[in-house]
């Protein structure tokens, strides 16, 4: 019986996030103010009182979600994870939680990742879509039919929920094919671009040097990484998987299954919202879930 801690990614943000933590915990306030200095702008102003539109900017969203999750973890006593995982961006919070990354280095990498992904989106206008009610194998089969457009599986969230990513024209066509194949819904998402697809290659190239030049320490427990849902403790492998994550799918369904196969019975989601708790229950209803937010 093991206790896993999981960390949400982009999409979990909301106006007012982190405000009560800032106001009620002096150590949390120090971390937030340190973050304002590192980022060079008062992200706390946007987190606490910005509009949903303000928070949707990738350069804001990613550090905001990272800060909420990571500062919550660092200021909550007696958290002793035996395994950790994060959904996409959440993997950086997971790496601070198991002491691979320092808070400062984690935030700097997240800020660089957000900026690099924003630029990649501007270079290649693109999008994503959620496909509901279709088997993963069928979604993969339809994606593989596209030869002249980029259309790939991006987020394996839970059985019957797979997000695809690619060119705008390709995703629009794929949605029609998914519906024709029996999907309950195939809905284009309001996102900045095709995350976790080959169209993020420019961001991957930018982020590679930053990750390779950052100190990664030995972890206190395994991190189950998005690229192949496997547990890692070798800092060099963790770095390589974090780089590859930008253009590879997030295998969340497989990650939760693997964690449970290796003894996880209890999952605590740390950060804004409760999306991961819902997904985990859909992956395996035997899992015990709770949240710290």
Overall geometry comes to globular
How much helical structure, as a percent, in the residues?
Answer: 40-55%
CATH topology of the largest domain: Malonyl-Coenzyme A Acyl Carrier Protein, domain 2
- Element-level helix/strand string: EHHHHHEHHEHEEHEHEEHHEHE
Class inferred from helices and paired strands: alpha/beta
CATH homologous superfamily name of the largest domain?
Malonyl-Coenzyme A Acyl Carrier Protein, domain 2
Give the total of domains.
Answer: 2
Number of helices, where a helix is a run of at least 4 consecutive DSSP H or I residues: 13
Gross CATH architecture of the largest domain: 3-Layer(aba) Sandwich
- Runs in which pLDDT lies below 50 for 5 or more consecutive residues are none
Overall average residue pLDDT: 97
Q: Whole-Å distance between the termini?
A: 24 Å
Largest sheet: 4 strands, parallel
Task: Please write out the topology.
Layout: E1 2-7, H1 19-24, H2 26-39, H3 43-49, H4 52-56, H5 58-75, E2 83-86, H6 90-97, H7 103-123, E3 126-132, H8 136-144, E4 151-158, E5 161-167, H9 168-180, E6 185-188, H10 201-212, E7 223-224, E8 231-232, H11 235-244, H12 252-261, E9 264-270, H13 275-283, E10 288-292
Parallel strand pairs: 1-2, 1-9, 9-10
Antiparallel strand pairs: 3-5, 3-6, 4-5, 7-8
Structure write-up:
- By secondary structure, this protein is α/β, with parallel strands linked by helices.
- The chain folds into 2 domains: 2-122 and 198-292, 3-Layer(aba) Sandwich (Malonyl-Coenzyme A Acyl Carrier Protein, domain 2), CATH 3.40.366; 125-188, Alpha-Beta Plaits (2-Layer Sandwich), CATH 3.30.70.250.
- 48% of the residues lie in helices and 18% in strands.
- The protein is built from 13 helices and 10 strands.
- The strands form 3 sheets. The protein has a 4-stranded parallel beta sheet with strand order 2-1-9-10, sandwiched between helices. It has a 4-stranded antiparallel beta sheet with strand order 4-5-3-6. Strands 7-8 form a two-stranded antiparallel ribbon.
- Strand 7 and strand 8 (231-232) form a beta hairpin.
- Helix 5 (58-75) packs parallel to helix 6 (90-97), helix 6 (90-97) packs antiparallel against helix 7 (103-123) and helix 10 (201-212) packs antiparallel against helix 11 (235-244).
- The longest helix has 21 residues, at 103-123.
- The chain is globular and about 55 Å long.
